[in-house]
Amino acid sequence: MRIAFAVVSVVLALPLTQSRVAAQSNQATSSGDPGAGASTYAFGNTSCSNCHGRQAEGAWGPALAGRNLTVEHVRQAVRDPVGRMASFNEHNVTEQEIVDMTAYFNSLPPSPGPSPWRVEWPADGPQGQQVAGVIGCLQCHGAAISTPRHGAGEVGGDFEWFKRMVYEHTTTQRAQWSQLDPNVPSSTPRPAGPWGRVRMGNYDSDRVPESLLQQIWTWMNDLGITVPLVGRLTPGKAGDDGVTYELNVSNGAVRDKGLTAEDVTIALAVPAGASVVSTTGTAYAGIRQGDANGDLAVWEVSRLAPGDSQRFTITLSRAADEELRGTIEYVKPEIPGGDVINIRPPVRREGRPPG
């Protein structure tokens, strides 16, 4: 059975008289830019839409569209919420952005009803998952709370680290970003927007007590703290022998703090009808039979320490019809069920397919 918390819908938290609502709503709409508000609200700039729906129609969080909200109302909900929402300061959302988003919400028609939640979780799942679901963590971090598990792996985080990330996220996340090598790709999100936005707010320990965080942290460790590995492919380059792709694999953890991946296996799917002409990288282990989709070109790396990057190339007899795909797996630290990292396919320039 899911845990039931007494929560208050954030957008209903402030009683305002009808005349005051109308006056302030008109002021917000006239002074705010709905287009700029839509841009701020969109996923990738903030994470508002993860809970409130792509068009503010409501989902896990309440609808915001067409509710005749005031700037004061929205500001109160953003800066000092009373429900299960985090508080967002100027590092997350500026005053002008609050005004613009208010204008955007008021420019939309009333919502016909909420959309499905972005992330569902099983009703019979672990206690920590239930707690994280009700608080709202899973709407941004997924049903397996992947991002915080990677974040802990970046710095070898413990429970004290986790508490700071929840209660003081705005400053703690920025401090962790400052420790990362900007030249080493990381699997955890980097600052959003032109001024380095921290997308998550800060939670109040009175509303989200430490005892609940301990349950989430226990569940995260049961799943396993993961190594922030990233694999990136470049578009193929045609040559006399075939088409060559470059693969870069990195451990984006903080040097001397984060986790090391040991016994790493890197596998690229060989496209049907193509053969491997040559490879680089001393860890190349040859061709192995894959699933029904074809063979795999495999590299075996003994370890990737925090901040390490390795470069590999593979030359195929012909270009792949679709993007090359592959995976990275490691044996240690042991993750129940394993940790499979998908290698990002190369980005093709429009009109210029590889090869």
Brief rundown of the structure:
With 355 residues, this protein is an alpha+beta fold. The chain has helices at residues 18-31, 34-41, 48-52, 71-79, 95-107, 127-135, 137-141, 146-155, 159-167, 169-179, 210-223, and strands spanning 229-233, 237-238, 243-251, 261-269, 276-280, 284-288, 296-304, 309-316, 326-332, 341-343.
Give an overview of the whole structure:
With 355 residues, this protein is α+β, with helices and mostly antiparallel strands. It folds into three domains: 10-107, Cytochrome c-like domain (Cytochrome Bc1 Complex, Chain D, domain 2), CATH 1.10.760.10; 127-223, no CATH class; 229-343, Immunoglobulin-like, CATH 2.60.40.1170. It is built from eleven helices and ten strands. It has helices at 18-31, 34-41, 48-52, 71-79, 95-107, 127-135, 137-141, 146-155, 159-167, 169-179, 210-223; strands at 229-233, 237-238, 243-251, 261-269, 276-280, 284-288, 296-304, 309-316, 326-332, 341-343. The strands form two sheets. Strands 1, 2, 3, 5 and 8 form a five-stranded antiparallel beta sheet that branches. A five-stranded antiparallel beta sheet has the order 6-7-4-9-10, with no helix packed on it. Helix 1 crosses helix 5, helix 2 crosses helix 5 (95-107) and helix 9 (159-167) crosses helix 11. The longest helix has 14 residues, at 18-31. It starts with 17 loop residues before the first helix and ends in a 12-residue tail after the last strand.
In quaternary terms, these chains amount to single chain
Radius of gyration: 23 Å
How large is the count of helical segments? 11
Quote the average pLDDT: 87
The 3D shape can be described as globular
Structural class: alpha+beta
Low-confidence stretches: 1-26, 348-355
The main pleated sheet reads as: 5 strands, antiparallel
Order of helices and strands: HHHHHHHHHHHEEEEEEEEEE
In CATH's first tier, which class of the largest domain applies?
Mainly Beta
| Number of domain units | 3
Give the helix level as a range of percent: 25-40%
As for the CATH topology of the largest domain, it is Immunoglobulin-like
Number of strands: 10
N/C terminus separation:
55 Å
